[in-house]
């Protein structure tokens, strides 16, 4: 089993380096692979910032990646929650931070917009820290 780095996932998704993309495809074809949430978060940033992809395209690409036969998220339940929240327009990193907060805890922030967006995305327990 192999855990994939961001650059390997990006080669699989965009294929911008033919040799590296082929090596990544060969690896995935030959053995089960996992993708951590931090790698997914970095991939979202790279696809948005470097490749100028839109949210819907990024979300579809990440879901397609995780649907491949030999690739799975290190935490599939968390990945699903984060991608579901991301589709509502919540920032990927914010969605990850809030979604991985245990149910019996609050995720506190000074970011009023995050509180509103998290609620719309169905992420409970995101609270505004008042000052």
In words, what does this structure look like?
Strands 1-2-3 form a three-stranded parallel β-sheet. Strands 4-5 form a two-stranded parallel ribbon. It has 131 residues and is mainly alpha-helical. It starts with a strand and ends with a strand. It is elongated, with a radius of gyration of 16 Å. It has helices at residues 6-14, 18-30, 37-49, 55-67, 76-87, 92-99, 112-120; strands spanning 2-3, 33-35, 71-73, 107-109, 126-128. The protein contains seven helices and five strands. β4 (107-109), α7 and β5 (126-128) form a beta-alpha-beta unit. The protein has a domain at 2-74.
- Report the C-alpha radius of gyration, rounded: 16 Å
Structural class designation: mainly alpha
- Work out the oligomeric state of the chains in this entry: single chain
Helix and strand sequence = EHHEHHEHHEHE
Strand content: 5-15%
The main pleated sheet reads as: 3 strands, parallel
N→C terminal distance: 48 Å
Widest sheet: strand order?
1-2-3
H/I helix tally: 7
Uncertain spans, ≥5 residues at pLDDT below 50? Answer: none
Mean pLDDT: 96
What overall form do the CA principal axes indicate? elongated
The tally of strands reads 5
Proportion in helices: 55-70%
């Amino acid at each position: 089993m192999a855990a994939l780095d961001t650059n390997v996932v990006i080669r699989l998704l965009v294929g911008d380096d033919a040799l590296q993309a082929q090596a990544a495809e060969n690896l995935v074809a030959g053995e089960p692979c996992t993708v951590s949430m931090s790698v997914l978060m970095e991939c979202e940033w790279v696809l948005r910032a470097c490749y100028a992809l839109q949210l819907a395209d990024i979300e579809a690409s990440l879901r397609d990646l995780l649907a491949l036969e030999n690739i799975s998220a290190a935490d599939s339940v968390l990945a699903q929650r984060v991608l579901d929240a991301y589709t509502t327009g919540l920032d990927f990193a914010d969605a990850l931070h809030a979604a991985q907060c245990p149910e019996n805890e609050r995720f506190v922030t000074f970011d009023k917009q995050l509180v509103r967006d998290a609620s719309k995305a169905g992420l409970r327990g995101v609270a505004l820290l008042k000052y």
